[in-house]
């Protein structure tokens, strides 16, 4: 299905030329000459993007029309156009939710590039709304224990506050569900909820994924791409496993949190974004700060409101409710029943994988067991304990990317030298048999922030 584009301009020549360009690219084009016709067409046709002129005499102008579109519930990205734009007009348009502001005369390349980004935003929002609907329907926070009720109360408190929240807890405790619940409890609930698994992004692609890139910004960048911050405009960006970001990515994330601006790779200008950031980790970031592997200033920026999720073993009373919930979700018409012995067997297990592991075990039981699940079926479904010989060697740590391992080693080694040098850069450089400018460059790259007064210098490389 081709994308529908609505052109709103009082000048027929503009509509004709812009319409010809877009039809040649395969788009379905709708037209309106004024504000009332534009709102009526948008409500009826639900266009994927709207080009809207700023000045349309003698009727309502573009800014008033933009307000009317939002009141009418039209959420398509709106690209404003004007040959007489003032800075105040552009600022007000962005505050009203305009996607971009183009100056006339319109260039075909800028029109098509901006439209591509707007349609990408539209598709992402649609997919995100479907995801949120699925989360609401299937993956609510289930439980009546005191621990989970405390989490519900905190979600209700922080949801409307628009503050950053750092969600901590073991893997499988439901950190993304909590982030989604905070988003739904906020004034941004109609906006997108964009989750990002920071641990899954290759280190050399973090900047492109987060902030986007222009065509030709690097080898392989064949088209413009919006970053996750721009896709989350007006909504919430959820940074899962934020503790796995490298030093360079941490520095760039801190800058965005401080300025509210992003700059695509290869772009000349920055763009302001209105995004709420939620973060999660299963690491102890305070310990990572002490080791020098996570920036202290970034930690403070993210940890405005801490929210710790309890592991399943600390809320075992919720296991019967969770088991019944997962069984109902998997077999809605005739969910299997757990007898008392089965529930006791489930409660006796330690659940190192937490709620995620319980969901997997229940799925196995629903597939393999009968209409009534007993303790024997549970025992067969649970992983068998693995005997460990007394003389066994400890399990080696899993391999990480070489660049990350080298950075971590260098960071800890330099931190040790700084401790032994009592924070003095010159002395640390002597111990490491390097010069001060080289050491300062490494400190900046690794995110280490020594006390400048300790060295008695004002310029790092003077």
How would you portray this structure in words?
This protein has helices at 12-24, 35-45, 62-71, 87-95, 108-138, 146-158, 175-184, 206-211, 228-231, 247-259, 285-291, 296-302, 319-330, 340-348, 354-368, 375-381, 402-420, 425-431, 436-446; strands spanning 4-8, 28-32, 49-53, 78-82, 100-103, 165-168, 193-197, 212-213, 225-226, 236-240, 261-262, 271-272, 276-281, 305-308, 337-338, 372-373. It has 462 residues and is an alpha/beta fold. The strands form 5 sheets. Strands 2-1-3-4-5 form a 5-stranded parallel sheet, with helices on both faces. Helix 13 crosses helix 15 (354-368). Residues 450-462 have low confidence and may be disordered.
Write the layout of secondary structure elements.
Blueprint: E1 4-8, H1 12-24, E2 28-32, H2 35-45, E3 49-53, H3 62-71, E4 78-82, H4 87-95, E5 100-103, H5 108-138, H6 146-158, E6 165-168, H7 175-184, E7 193-197, H8 206-211, E8 212-213, E9 225-226, H9 228-231, E10 236-240, H10 247-259, E11 261-262, E12 271-272, E13 276-281, H11 285-291, H12 296-302, E14 305-308, H13 319-330, E15 337-338, H14 340-348, H15 354-368, E16 372-373, H16 375-381, H17 402-420, H18 425-431, H19 436-446
Parallel strand pairs: 1-2, 1-3, 3-4, 4-5, 6-13, 6-14, 7-10, 10-13, 15-16
Antiparallel strand pairs: 8-9, 11-12
Helix pairs in contact: 2-3, 13-15, 14-16, 17-18
What characteristic shape results from the CA principal axes?
globular
The largest sheet, given as strand count, sense and whether it forms a barrel, is:
5 strands, parallel
Strand order of the largest sheet: 2-1-3-4-5
Figure out the total of helices.
Answer: 19
Number of strands: 16
Helix/strand structural class: alpha/beta
The span between the termini is 62 Å
Beta-strand residue fraction: 5-15%
Q: Determine Rg (CA atoms, Å).
A: 27 Å
Helix content: 40-55%
* Average pLDDT: 85
Spans of at least 5 consecutive residues with low confidence: 450-462
């Amino acid at each position: 299905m081709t994308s529908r584009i609505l052109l709103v301009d009082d000048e027929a020549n503009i509509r004709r030329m812009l319409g010809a360009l877009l039809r040649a690219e395969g788009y379905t084009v709708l037209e309106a000459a004024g504000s009332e016709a534009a709102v009526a067409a948008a409500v009826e046709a639900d266009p994927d993007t709207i080009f809207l002129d700023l000045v349309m005499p003698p009727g309502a102008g573009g800014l008033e029309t933009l307000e009317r579109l939002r009141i009418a519930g039209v959420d398509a990205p709106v690209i404003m156009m004007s040959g007489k734009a003032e800075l105040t007009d552009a600022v007000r348009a962005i505050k009203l939710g305009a996607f971009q502001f183009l100056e006339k005369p319109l260039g075909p390349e800028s029109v098509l590039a901006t439209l591509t980004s707007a349609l990408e935003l539209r598709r992402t929002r649609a997919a995100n709304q479907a995801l949120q609907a699925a989360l609401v329907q299937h993956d609510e926070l289930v439980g009546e224990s005191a621990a989970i009720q405390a989490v519900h109360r905190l979600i209700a408190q922080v949801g409307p506050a628009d503050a950053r929240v750092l969600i901590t807890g073991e893997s499988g405790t439901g950190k993304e569900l909590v982030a989604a619940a905070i988003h739904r409890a906020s004034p941004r609930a109609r906006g997108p909820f964009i989750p990002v698994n920071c641990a899954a992004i290759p280190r050399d692609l973090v900047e492109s994924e987060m902030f986007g890139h222009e065509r030709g910004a690097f080898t392989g960048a064949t088209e413009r791409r919006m970053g996750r911050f721009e896709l989350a405009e007006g909504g919430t960006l959820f940074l899962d496993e934020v503790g796995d970001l490298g030093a360079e990515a941490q520095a760039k994330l801190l800058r965005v949190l401080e300025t509210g601006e992003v700059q695509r790779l290869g772009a000349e200008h920055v763009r302001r974004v209105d995004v709420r950031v939620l973060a999660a980790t299963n690491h102890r970031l305070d310990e990572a700060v002490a080791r020098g592997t996570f920036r202290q200033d970034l930690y403070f920026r993210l940890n405005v409101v801490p929210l710790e999720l309890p592991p399943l073993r600390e809320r075992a009373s919720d296991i019967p409710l969770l088991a019944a919930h997962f069984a109902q979700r998997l077999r809605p018409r005739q969910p299997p029943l757990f007898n008392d012995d089965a529930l006791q067997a489930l409660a006796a297990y330690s659940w190192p994988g937490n709620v995620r592991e319980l969901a997997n075990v229940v799925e196995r039981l629903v597939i393999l067991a009968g209409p009534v699940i007993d303790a024997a079926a549970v025992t067969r479904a649970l992983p068998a304990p693995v005997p460990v010989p007394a003389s066994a060697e400890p399990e080696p740590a899993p391999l990480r990317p070489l660049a990350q391992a080298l950075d971590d080693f260098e960071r800890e080694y330099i931190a040790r030298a700084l401790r032994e040098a009592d924070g003095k850069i010159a002395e640390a450089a002597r111990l490491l048999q390097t010069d001060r400018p080289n050491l300062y460059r490494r400190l900046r790259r690794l995110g280490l922030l020594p006390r400048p007064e300790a060295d008695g210098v004002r310029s790092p490389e003077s």
